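Our preliminary data section would be incomplete without showing what the modeling component actually yields. Below, a chain of 323 amino acids is followed by its predicted structure, encoded as tokens that our downstream tools consume directly.
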Amino acid sequence: MVLLTLALGLALYCFGSKLGGGWGGLLCLASYVSYPAFLAFGPLILTVYFVLSWKQPTDSLQRLGTGVVGLFARRLLMPPWLYLRGLAVFLLMSSRGTFILGHSCPHGVWFYFPALFILKSTLAFLVLLVLAAAVAAIAKRKLPRGSVIPAELRFHWPALWVFLAVFVVACLLSRLDLSIRHFTVPIALIILALAPIPHALEELKRAGWRSARILEGVAVLLAAVSIVTAIRAYPHCIPFLNSLSFGRPGYTLVNDSNLDWNQSLPEASVSSSSAAWRMCWWTNTASPILRVRERGAVLELPTAFAVRCRPLGHRVGEHDRGW
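Predicted structure:
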């Protein structure tokens, strides 16, 4: 997943350079590397599946064999198998309750992803989008038609907006609203749409519009501020919310992996081994308890990380006493 994340950044830079020159490509790349959702989920998705599946039984892949090679292959293929199984569950259960801006909803709502996008983007990036819209409007009024987008890409430019509209509408109509990571395709397209802005400002400057130079500096400053914000947020990019949350706790505004994706289980495992942890109760959509069958009996054992806790609502038995 890290390689795919890097490849997406390279693709945005290359296509951005074609649309808006070298500065356009750099603006896209800066926006991409400073977007918290890409920093959080890009390298994490299969890594999380790999770590959390390490101690899970591989019986579902037993057809690969029980020898040394077969067992190694089963363990190696567990993460993608869990991922694909999750996709199958998504197809079968494509509607469920959600939570946004302090309100519980029985199914997905149209404003879920727009609200997430506003809350989980850096403020500098949001201002950069406003600046881009203003520059586009000014360029349309002051510059000759076709002077910003290269002639060989005049078909690709409207195609980009069509693709963006299709993905955005699909997300707005979705009844399964879980995480900002499901909105990353539209975000990537929005970032790519910023590419022509530096070239448009350069053309406006040549046309004698004096404010163009100032807006160039503002664009560079916003990109730099966005990068600094991302650096300050790292490595806690999953629960990132910008100042538009007005200091409210994240759990009062958003849900699910917009706040937590068990990314702190290693730290919790270390902390729970200390004497300071007298009692811990666990509540999460992903239970740390693994149910396995042994000699006809169902045993419940802690999975990937030994977090000493009891799940809320779980009936404690002899086998898990002390957890």
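The chain has a mean pLDDT of 77. The radius of gyration is 24 Å. Preliminary results of this kind motivate Aim 1 of the renewal.
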